[in-house]
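=== RUN LOG ===
request id: a7f3
mode: sequence -> structure
chains: 1
length: 101
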Amino acid sequence: MSHGRLTLGVGLGSDRFAQEFSKTGEELDDSVRAEWLDETLDILTAGWTGEPVNHHGKHYTVDGARFLPRPVAGRVCGRSGEVRVRAAPGRGGVAVVPIGV
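=== RESULT ===
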C-alpha cells in the first residue's frame, strides 16, 4: 500500500485540553518534552540515512540500529518559534504552524 514509504508527523503535545499527560503520569514540563523530541528527531534523521545509528545522548542510547523504511516527508507541528528549528531542512521536515489555536 505505501510502497515501502512512511510519512511521520510529530509534535510536542500539550496537557492543556484533555490532560492526557497528567492522567498517564507523563512529563508535564514542556522544556523536558522538547529535549526528548529534539533528541528523538536527531536519532530518526540519522537512522533514515540507511546507515547504522550510534547515539549516546542525555535521554536515549542507540547502538547500531537502522531505521527502515525511509520517510517520504516529515511534519512537525506547533505554535512556537522552535517548531521551525525542529523542522529544519537537515531533518527533512516541514513546519506546520496553526494560526489561532
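=== NOTES ===
Strands lie at 6-11, 53-56, 61-65, 71-77, 93-96.
Residues 6-96 form one domain.
=== END ===
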